[in-house]
């Protein structure tokens, strides 16, 4: 931002401003800000550039935080900065402090979701393949057990023999 109001004193009060998001460049040009108050807004995420080496206090309470792996990683990258951040979404974390959610649980939820989507599809595909194989076996066995299938296979051989006999008879009849 341009020189922010209050930044000269090292404290930036942005509480109760109905902020929905902060620009990616927020505080990028400011090296003297030590305290930032962003409570009682409608923020859902933090820009990566917000956490500055000079920042000692960051107040983020009463926002609509979307607790994600990225947000957790951003906050944990600054262990000296204690921030209380209560989750609004996803629903299963609503009301939980982001710092209390195990990283593995929050960051691997997408792979579990993919597993629960792919697993039923694979089971359906396997069931269809089994049904297809069973039908094919039943069809294969029924052809072998039906007498007309044997006749159908015998007919070409008989026709070929008959054709040879006729050809032989024709040569014998047309001879000198």
TrEMBL record:
Keywords: Membrane, Signal, Transmembrane, Transmembrane helix. GO terms for biological process: signal transduction. It comes from Nothoprocta perdicaria (Chilean tinamou). It is found in: Membrane. InterPro entries: LRR_dom_sf. GO terms for molecular function: signaling receptor activity. Residues 159-169 have a biased composition (Basic and acidic residues). This is LRRCT domain-containing protein. GO terms for cellular component: plasma membrane. It is a single-pass membrane protein. Residues 146-176 are annotated as: Disordered. The chain crosses the membrane at residues 112-133. It comes from the Eukaryota.
